[in-house]
Amino acid sequence: MVTLKDVAKKANVSPSTVSRVMSNSKDISENTRKKVTKIMDELGYVPNITARKLVTNQSNTIGLVLKTISIEMRQNPFFTEVLTSISSVCEEKRFSTIMTTSYTSEDLLNEVKALVLSKAVDGFILLYSMENDPIYKYLVDNEVPFVVIGKKINNDPNVMFVDNDNIEASYNLTKYMSGLGHRSLLFLSENNTYEVNKDRLTGFLKVCKEDNIQHKYVNEVVSRDEITNLLINEDIRKNYTGIVTTDSMLNLNLLSALYKLNVNIPDDIQTCTFTDSYLSESACPPQTVVNIYPENLGKIAAKSLLEILQKEDAVMHSSIIPTSIIERDSTKQLKS
Amino acid sequence: MVTLKDVAKKANVSPSTVSRVMSNSKDISENTRKKVTKIMDELGYVPNITARKLVTNQSNTIGLVLKTISIEMRQNPFFTEVLTSISSVCEEKRFSTIMTTSYTSEDLLNEVKALVLSKAVDGFILLYSMENDPIYKYLVDNEVPFVVIGKKINNDPNVMFVDNDNIEASYNLTKYMSGLGHRSLLFLSENNTYEVNKDRLTGFLKVCKEDNIQHKYVNEVVSRDEITNLLINEDIRKNYTGIVTTDSMLNLNLLSALYKLNVNIPDDIQTCTFTDSYLSESACPPQTVVNIYPENLGKIAAKSLLEILQKEDAVMHSSIIPTSIIERDSTKQLKS
DNA sequence: TTGAAAGCGATACCAA
DNA sequence: TTGGTATCGCTTTCAA
Q1: Mind listing the pLDDT tens digit for each residue in A67-121?
Q2: Which of A186, A244, A270, A316 has the greatest number of beta carbons closer than 10 A?
Q3: Right CATH number for A61-164+294-322 from 3.40.50.920, 3.40.50.2300, 3.30.390.30, 3.30.70.20?
Q4: How far apart are CA A84 and CA A299, in angstroms?
Q5: Quick check: B47 CB within 7 A of strand D?
Q6: Would the CB atoms of A74 and B80 count as touching at under 8 Å?
Q7: Which architecture, in CATH terms, is A4-56?
Q8: Is A3 within 7 A of strand C by CB distance?
Q9: Where would I find the HTH lacI-type domain in this sequence (chains A, B) (predicted)?
């Protein structure tokens, strides 16, 4: 194995010089730089990252903290898109990523602590936002740099948030439905623990009030069977003209339930949801959605964190990613 | 920050002793073990993994090599399930994982080389199998331990493969369709570059021949629109009673196309596919599938690799994961 | 069963 | 602009 010392010896310089060449230090002559670079190539030298980490005390990796939820959550296209964009930003800056794997909140906290204490990561990106989150608190208390993808909480000036304006997004989507002529809407949400769902409900209710739309919102009805029962109980075809879901996987289950009940979209009822992905694009039928641009959420989050980590003069700032509505076959103008 | 030396000093022992306690060395007295453990707890000592890596020259992380394909590939539930199960096995054994991020085969090879040369990983899991793969060759040539999830190639005794018997799986699925009374089937496949798709076609054709089933197989027709055109051209309702797809995302597009054409499943036509996941379970309607148990593929692959890495006496072996058919609403007995 | 000390391969400080 | 060298935190001989 070729080490820095080998290079130094062969090039007739000191280890420090070689190190400087690698870090692109500017106080080094063009001559020695060339010489050293050449030798490095000849020898096929590859720096040992571990050794570097030990002395710099920097891991050059960031931790990705996922929600403590079922495996299905991790298959949610929203996450894979965010994750992919984070990875590619990191890749560019020669950072690695490491993802949490815990399913209970207790395990998760411990996992994060272990990552911090063992110096395995330089910072975190939290892929959720939740009030009274012990992990949030731990990171703040221990001054570990991190950014949150999700809603701002506590108004802590030392924490960066990257989010959409979900109230607005939901307001726009509902307003769009209202514009199509809907006067009775059903709103389905997985739960109301996370901030994002609260906001989407808020936006929905605002339009309902403004435009005098009959409505009902239901939480925690998630599986295909549960939804089927709900649709039957609500006599869906008769009492509603549209259904809004907060999530693309929930929407998937809804469509499956409607298919089972032989309710046609958009003729018998119309549907729309949040978070665009192949799931919505290739649904039965393709769904009108709010695109929240997960790839931008991830990109900005990663860039912001890396900036904090690498630049002295980086300035804390939160970001709001704009959203847009994509119209597809699941909605259309209602005949009056 | 608490280091091993701090613990040693406080416990009045040497660093070596503390190190031995951590590694569960057996030549250490019960007394000192207890004493040291207690101090470690008191001080909240967490070993610095980086330092350990440097001296042991082991990274305790394994590299996951993904196909060089579009982002959609990474959203395929098959991958997320395999990945999740690999991660959880690694987590248990205190290994980390690192995933490749390259999209071109050239970049991918370089990424793998860099991982090897910088000692960033101890071994790899390849999440695909392909003939004449330069990465495969590189790993073999450089004696890097790895296991392949996918079909055995080259019959190399020094490489471990974990796979399903896809010929058999496809045979069984097609036989099942035949048993329902189907006598004309359409077979859709994304491509025939990877071994897995070749095998699935082979199994399909075998049954068609045995049971005298009219059939047609089509590659590279993937998007919703392409499929829609195909279905129209083939006059699908009239000429076929069933459609087999090789992949759950392809199946998703098929269902969307059928929905658009107002073709009902299973009344107008029946469908089935490979790889179970929420996509198939919550489809319109839920799909009959071959479960290839991605979680077991990942689990066995990870366990096999870790065994090689950790145990002296580990013995090379390839594994075949059994498959099974899950019957759902998309198929039923055909009335004759 | 324990301790002393020599590294592992980089970086970074202090001198020159 | 360069070199010498202590150092990061741990493991691992070798000796006691």
Answers
A1: 866 666 778 888 888 998 998 899 888 888 888 888 888 989 998 998 888 888 9
A2: A244
A3: 3.40.50.2300
A4: 9
A5: yes
A6: yes
A7: Orthogonal Bundle (1.10)
A8: yes
A9: 2-56
